[in-house]
Amino acid sequence: MVDTPSSRPLDNEELTNVINLGFVLICGFLCFLLQAGFGLLEVGSVRRKNAKNIMLKNTMDAAVSALAYWAVGFAFAYGTSNNGFIGNSRYFLMDEDGEDFEDYVNWFFQWVFAGTTATIVSGAVAERCRFRAYMIYSAFLSGFVYPVVCHWIWDPSGFLYGKVMDFSGSGAVHLVGGAAAMAGAWILGPRIGRFVQNEQTGEWQAVEIPGHNAVLAALGTLVLWFGFFPFNAGAGYAVASNADIVTTGRAVVVTNLAAASGGCALLFYGVLRNGVWDPAFAMNGLLGGMVASCSGVNVFDTWSAIIVGILGALGFYVQVWVFETKLRIDDPLNASPLHMGSGIMGMLAVGFLANDKYVASADEAGLFFGGNGKQLGYQVYGTIVYFAWAFGTSALLFYGLKLIGWLRVSEEAELMGMDQHEHAGFAYIDDDGTAIVVKNHFSPSSSQTGGDDMLVEVSVDEEGDTTQTKKPTEEHLHSDEAAKNPANPPNQLRQSSVSADNRANPPNQLRQRKVSDTALEPGLI
Among positive and negative, which fits the CA dihedral 358, 363, 367, 370? Predict the structure, then answer.
C-alpha cells in the first residue's frame, strides 16, 4: 500500500495545512452570503418596478463570475508569469502538465472575492441598463479586470506584491469595483428625472428617487456586516498557530469597530444636517467603515479602527457630494462612492496607521508609528494604478456597448420598469393575482424644481405607488390654492423660496425633505 496522507496519520505540518485550509473553506462559504446581502440591499433601494431585475442581476453575478473565473480568471490572477502583469497558466483549472488542478479551496475563496467585485457595479447601473449588457460586463470584470489586479498585488510575481499593503482588498476589490461602477454610471447616463434644471437660475439639482423597501435594505446591510467578518478573517489564510489566531481575531475586531464608528459618525452627521435619524446614513457609514478597514485589518490597532471607520464614512460622503453637485453622475445605490471613496481612504490610512509592531520592517510602518513615508508612497501609487486600470478598461467596454446600442434600455422601457420590459412581469403580485404596477412619476418634461429651500413631499397610495411633489413651505401656498389662482401657477410656486419665518415646519417628518438634503437618501451599497 502506498504511503499517502490519506492512509497514515498527518504530521504536524500537514495537520496545520488542513486546519488552515478548512478555515479558509468555511470562510468562503460564509462570504458567499455577501451576494445575498448585496441583493437585499439593492432590491430595497430601487423602485419596485425594477425589483426582479436587480435581484436577477445579483444572482447571475455569482453564476457568470464562476464560469469566467474558472475559465480564465484564476489563470490571469495566479498563473505563472514572467512579466509581473498577468498570469498565463491554469486555464480551466488545469495544471501546466494537463493534470487536474488540486488547489480547489484557494480557487473557491478567490472566486468569492471576484464575484463580490462584479456585484458592486449592479447598483450603480440599476434601473436603466440592459440585462445582456450587464451579463457581458460581469464576465469581463470577474474574468479579466479584477484577476489582473489580483496578480499584481497578491501573486508573488506581481509588480505590487510586497510593496503595497492591501490585506483583503480596500483597493483590489472595493476601489476596483467602485471605479468600474463609476465608469458604468457615467457612460450610461442618469435615470429620467434624477437631475432637473431650474429654468430661472439654470442650476441643476439632484432629485431623490426613493427605494421601495427600507426594511429589505437594512436587512441586506446586516447580512453584509456579517459577511465582512469571514471576508477579512479568511484573507489571512491561517489560524493554526497562536500568532495566526491573534492576527485573525484582531482583524475581526478591527472590522467590527470600523463599521461601528463609521455608522455612528455618518448617522450623527445626518441628524445635524437634516434633523432626522436617517437609516440610510447609518447603513452607508457602517459599510464604508468596513470597506476602509480591509487594506489594513492585519496592521491596525483597535483604536486605529475607530479613525479608519470615520475616514471611510468621510470618503463615501465626499464622493456622493462630487457626483451629485459637480459631475451629475447618477449612482442609484451610491455603489461607487461607497466602494471607491471608502476604499481610497482605507488604502491611504495604511500609510499613516500601520503599527510598527505588526509589520515586517520599519519601512512598512505608518507615519504615526515612526514610518519614513515610504509605505504611504506605495499606497498612493497603488491607489492610482488601481483606479487607472479599472476605470480605463471598464469605460472602454461600457462605451463600446453604448456604440452598438446594447447598453441602455429605451425611455419607454425605463418608464415601464425593467421587470415588465425584460423579465416577463413584476416582482410583486396582489392577493387577487393582479400585478402591483408602479407608475413612473418623472418625465423629460419635468424640468422644474425648487431652490435649496424647496421641500419634496413623497406620498404613497394604497397600492404602494410613490409620488413626489415639490412644494413651498408657506402655509398659505398650498398646492390646491395654487391651482385656483391663475396668477400664481404651480411651476412658479415650485420656484418660490421659503421664508425664514416658516422654518418651523416640522423638519423631522420623514416624507418631507429639502431637495438639497436628500442627495444621500438612495445611497445604499
Answer: positive
Place of cell 397610495: 461
H or E segment to which residue 419 belongs: helix 418-422
d(CA 204, CA 195): 6
Phi, psi of 160 (to 5 degrees): -100, -10
Query: Residue for cell digits 424647496?
Result: 454
Model confidence pLDDT, tens digit, residues 310-369? 999 999 999 999 999 999 999 999 999 999 999 999 999 999 999 999 999 999 999 999
Q: For 485-500, how does the pLDDT look when each residue is reduced to its tens digit (9 = 90+)?
A: 444 443 333 333 333 3
CA 319/CA 480 separation, integer angstroms? 39
Joined grid coordinates for residue 393: 478598461
Residue whose C-alpha cell is 469571514 = 230
Cβ burial 406-436 (10 Å sphere, 16+ → b, else e)? ebbbeeeebbbbbbbbbbeebbbeeeeeeee
Sheet with 512-514: strands ordered across: 466-471, 455-460, 512-514
φ/ψ (deg, to 5) at 73 = -60, -50
Integer Cα distance of 337 and 97 in angstroms: 44
Collapse the DSSP code of 365 into the 3-class scheme (helix H, G, I; strand E, B; otherwise coil) and give the result.
coil
The Cα 31–Cα 62 span in angstroms is: 12
Residues β-bridged to residue 429: 435
Nearest CA-CA partner of 111 in 144, 70, 145, 148: 70
Judged by DSSP in three states, 360 sits in coil
Q: Which residues contact 387 (CB under 8 A, 6 or more apart)?
A: 175, 179, 340
- State pTM to two decimals: 0.83
Among residues 221, 204, 209, the alpha carbon closest in space to that of 323 is found at: 204
Task: Give dist(CA 368, CA 300) in Å, integer.
Answer: 11
Phi/psi of residue 202, nearest 5 degrees: 80, 0
